[in-house]
Automatic annotation (TrEMBL):
Repeat recorded as keyword: yes
Keyword terms of this UniProt record: Repeat
Name of the protein in question: DYW domain-containing protein
Matching Pfam families: E_motif (PF20431), PPR (PF01535), PPR_2 (PF13041)
PPR repeats: 166-200, 267-301, 368-402
Amino acid sequence: MRSSFPKLQRSFLGLHSTSSNPNPPSSLSPSQWLLLSSSISTSRHLRQFLARAIAAGLLRNNHLHLWNSLLHSLARGPNPDLSISLFDLLRRAGVAFDNYAFTAVLKAVAAFPLPKEGENIHSLSLKLGFESENFVLNSLIHMYFVCGFHVAARRVFDLAEDSARDVVSWNSMISGYLQVGMCQEALSVFGNMVRRSITMDAITPVSALIACGRIRAIEPGRRIHSLVVIYGFDLNCFLGSSLINMYAGCGYIEDARKLFDRMPERNVVCWTSMISGYTQSGRFRESIKLFREMQMAGVRADDPTIASVISSCAQLGAHAQGSYIHKYCDANNIGKLLSVKNALIDMYSKCGDIQRAFEVFQGLAQKDVISWTVMISGLALNGYPKEALDLFSEMELSDEAMPNEITFLGVLTACSHGGLVDKGYHYFNKMVHCYGLMPQIEHYGCMVDLLGRANLLKEAKNFIKEMPIKPDVVIWRSLLFACRGKGNVKLAEYAAERILEMEPRRCAGHVLLSNIYAVSSRWSDVNKVRGVMSNWGIHKKPGCSFIELNGIVHEFFATDRSHHQSDMIYEFLRYKWLGTRHIRRRGCPLCCCCLRRSKIKVLESTKREPRRCKTKGAREAHQWIIISYTELGTAAWSITLLRLPIIFQAM
């Protein structure tokens, strides 16, 4: 872009003395000239316009307002570089600029951005004494931040006189630091502004609240909220959504909801802020429920709203609800952004509908790295490792996106689930030598999981020892979990010791080790581990599962009876448990139970159904997914019923 400027400038300067139109309409007024300039869209148009302007004598006369208007018009147009070229031409022609001309050309520089041209214009403003002008100062700060030169922006701000800095200058510094991800510095500038008693406007607290939400700084956020009340700012949608985002981002979702309920007006931004806050806080049911309320309130959702609620459906496995939202998008002509399409792929994949996920993926006009990564991971997690690796090969051949670290996590997961040890090593080395990506702890965890699933426990242990980074607790959990399936008690104890060194008060290591002892019938060791947990006050969180039925997501916790149909569900469970006694006696039980002397495995039986359910409630309860844990003395047993109609329909 910059290499074309000198050639363009020489063409302009040549027009100063030689015009292609010897008899231009010099009688045009400045407003007519400005109207004529609206047709400028290319450098050729600009040359033609300038030729007529020069021939009409506009450079010899004082028409600075015309040039300023043209500079601003070009800076806002599709080709801001024309504004920079015109500015340089006018400077060479000896036109005396004012501060508005500098504001326009600095806006054009920031649009690309072109830091070298920005520095040259800054030097010219210093030479002409315009740097202390308020408009020029603010434009310089904005330009340097957009170009990524935050140190230069801070120097311009600090060297300016107090009289030159207004609230826009302070806002530019705060928002500029936000743009470059320096939230702590943004809050520091805001605090300095408050200490100097600089009168803020409604935009100032919004930028500061965004900074608080990003770094989860709740106390500064609350103080800013207090200042909003003290200054008497109206709780409009703009400010209200910023407060909601701050509280939700800091983990105070209840405070965010109270604020949301008190807002006099709520637009789509406010609804989206609250919905995404629920999603980010892991309260997915509330997110979907609020989306329904949003529809009942007659507020039309936008793409960010859809992306958030689809993410909640993905986490809950709410396939019907997610499909409804997909149809809602098609009916209302929304959800066209790639981020929404990627969320749909992720949702269908996590709900097990890999066919629909692939249909959405194939329908994308253009795919980014997230699109490829989500689809590869979805195939890997749904039992299609070969297809996942084939898709990765297709990604490598395409020029749409370059694989990143997360993409290789999906690839290694596919190798792990497919038992492809050699390919796992191949891709692990490829990400380093071919793509220059350094493996993170998650990639090492995938390799340990791959070796553990392949029953290569010794190789997994050696791999951990040779890691260039210190293994975290997830690595040791992967090894411990692999030992559980293979009954390697000695290695399990070694991994458990490493886990307990890192997390002595967490239950995961104790529970896994206890289960391994139980599988090996080492009941004294089971009692010992549980005794340690009891003495230290360590409790395992109850198991939880979800099921979507008729568009409603139901949640079940182990031994919980809060569900309104719990009596009916437990009646059905007792009935089915008693009805499978003859199967359990033959070693083909309903589920995996650890009783004191025997281990029973889950098998999908093809035996006949013993007898028909006697009650209507019991017949209806077969639609639920239930996970229930019951303590029997010192040994735990569990019943896991996944899609009861499928399991029991042929018994």
